Amino acid sequence: MTKLDISKETPKWIGTGLDNDVVLSSRVRLARNLANTPFPQKLNREEKLKVLKKIDEAVDATELKKELKLIQLDGLSPLEKQTLVERHLISPFAASGENGAVYLSEDQTEAVMVNEEDHIRIQCLSTGLNLEEMLQKANRIDDLLESRIDYAFHERNGYLTTCPTNVGTGMRASVMMHLHGHVAANKINEVISNIAKIGLVVRGVYGEGSEAGGNLFQISNQITLGQSEEEIIQKLSTVTKQLIDQERMLEKAIYRANPLGLEDRTMRSLGILKYAKKLSVEEALKYLSTLWQGINLGILQEIPLETIVRLMILVRPAMMENLRQKLDQSMDIDVLRAGIVRDQLK
Amino acid sequence: MTKLDISKETPKWIGTGLDNDVVLSSRVRLARNLANTPFPQKLNREEKLKVLKKIDEAVDATELKKELKLIQLDGLSPLEKQTLVERHLISPFAASGENGAVYLSEDQTEAVMVNEEDHIRIQCLSTGLNLEEMLQKANRIDDLLESRIDYAFHERNGYLTTCPTNVGTGMRASVMMHLHGHVAANKINEVISNIAKIGLVVRGVYGEGSEAGGNLFQISNQITLGQSEEEIIQKLSTVTKQLIDQERMLEKAIYRANPLGLEDRTMRSLGILKYAKKLSVEEALKYLSTLWQGINLGILQEIPLETIVRLMILVRPAMMENLRQKLDQSMDIDVLRAGIVRDQLK
Predict the structure, then answer these.
(1) Chain B residue set in contact with A, beta carbons under 8 Å
(2) B228, B250, B272: which is the final residue of a domain?
(3) Per-residue pLDDT tens digits for A43-59
(4) pTM of the entire structure?
(5) What distance in Å separates residue A267's CA from the closest CA in chain B?
(6) Side-chain half-sphere of B269: how many Cα atoms within 13 Å?
C-alpha cells in the first residue's frame, strides 16, 4: 500500500488555526426558508425540485455562482452521503432525506444545504476558534441569497424554521473541542450541566460523553430567539475561551501530578498505534486522543497535531468504508484502519 | 545510557539448544552429604568451615581444581546472592543460609553448592533439552568428589540427605519450559494434575501457575527412591518431549483459529515494549512471553529468541536492582526495566 495522502481524504479546511491545541473547528449555520412555501417535509419531489430551482437561480445570479458547486445527494450512494456527514459537510438529516442537494465551495469551508430540514441551510466551517469570521461569511452568503429570494420571516419571531428551536436568528453556532483533560479529571459532566444553565449545550461528537469518542465534544447555542447573532456568538466564544483555559490547566495539572505515568501512557499509545494489526474505531480514537494530549504537553514532538486531527476524522466508520472500497474491498475494516494509522505515524 | 550487553548480565549458558523454542533450560542436581557428619543445619560456623575445607581439598586434588572457582556467599551482599538465585546458579535456600559457598565453572553450567540444605549439591545446567548430558556431567563431578570424600550412603536407601524427599539417588532433574500455548488454551492445570500422577511436578517459575510469570514452568521429578537416575531422566525426557509436541500443536492451533488476532496481539506487545516508559516485572514477562510465541510462529522474524529469553531473566526484581545499583541508583526500577527492554528491542 502506498502511503495515503490523508489531507486529500479529510476536510481541506483542517490546518493550523487559533487555539487549535484544544479547538478542532468552529461552525456557524443559518436556517432559512422560502416565503409562502411549505417546509421540505411537506413537499413532494416536484415541489422540492422547484425549491432547488429557485435557489439555483439565486446562486446563478450572484457571485456565489463562481464559488459554489452543486452536488445532488440523490446521485450519491448512502456511503458517499455518510462520508460527507463525517466530513461535517452535510448533516445526518440531509444524508437520510430525499431530493437533497448541497452547494460546496472549493475549500469546503462553505456549504449551502437545500431541502434538508429547512429549505436552506448555510454553513461556514473553519479550523480552530474562529466564530466571528464564520458568522461574517455566513451572513455574506445569506445576504446574497436574500437579494434574490423572499425568506419566510415574521416581524416579531424572526426567521421561521421547521423546528421551533431554530426560530429567530435561525443560527446555530458550534465549536468542536478536544477535552481530554476534562474527561481525565472527571470534570466533563460538571461542564455539561453548567453550560446547559446558560443556554449552551455540550455533546460528545462520537459516542455520547465517553472517552470512546476520542474526547471530542461539540458546544453549541440552544437559544435562537431573543438574542442577536452577535450576542450568541459572543457568549459562545467567551465560554469556549474559558473552556480552553480550563482544559490547558487541567492537562498540565494531570501531567504535573504524574509525569512518568502520562509519558508512559502517551508512548504506549504511540507504540500500539504504530504496531497494531487491527484497530476498532473506539480504540483508534482513544489512543489518538492520548497522542493529541501528548503533543500539547510537549511529550511527543515529532508528530504534527494536524496528522492526529486528520486521523481522528479519517478513522470513523464511513470514512474507512469509503477508503476500503477505493483501495481493497476484500480488506477487513479494522485491519485497514490499523494499516493507515501505522503508515501515517511512521 | 549506552546499550547494555545483556549476554554479560544473564547466564552465559543461554543460547541455542535442542527444542529451545519451548525449553529454556535443563538441570540436574545431585544432593550429597559427608559420612559421619551432621547435616548442615546442625553445624556451627566452625564445623561448616571444616566441611568446606574437606570439599576444597577434594576439589584441589582433582581436575576440578582447574574448572571450578570458589565463591564464599558470606562475602556477598543479599542482592548479589539474590542475583545468583535469579541466574539459577544457587538455590534460594543457599542465599538465605549462613556460611554457604559455591564452586562455579567459568561458563556457569556447573556449580557445586556447599553447606546448603545438604553438604554438597552438584548442579549442571544447560540451554534447551539436554538432561542426559547434564546427568553425565553431574556424575563426573560426583565421581571426582567421591574419589576423595566419604559420602553418607545407606545400602538399602542410597544417598542420605537432609530432606527425606531426596533420599535415594539424591537427584533432582528439571526442565524449564515456556508453555504459552498451554496457558492460552487453558490446558495448564490439566497438565499439572496429570503430571503429578506419574511422580513429576510442574511449578510456575515466577508467580504460581499464572500468566503473570511469563508462562514459564519448571517440571521436575518428585521421586528419588526406587528408581535409577537414568530411569528418572528417561521419564522426565519423555514427558518433556510430549509437552513440547503438545505446546507446538497448541500454539499453531491458536494461531490458525485467529491469525489476525494473534498477529495483532504480538505486534501490540512489541509496540508496548518498544515504547513504554515504565514496566512492571509482570507486564514485561507477559509481553515478552507473547513475543516468544510470535517468534515461534514466524510472526516476528527480526528479533532473536535468545534476546527474549535473556530479557525474561534480566527483568526480574533482583537482576534489575543489581543493574540499578551499577547504573544509576536514583532510577526507578520500572523505568530502568522499560529502558533496558526498549533498548534491546531496537
Answers:
(1) 260-261, 263-264, 267-268, 270-278, 332, 335, 338
(2) B250
(3) 998 999 999 999 999 99
(4) 0.87
(5) 5
(6) 23
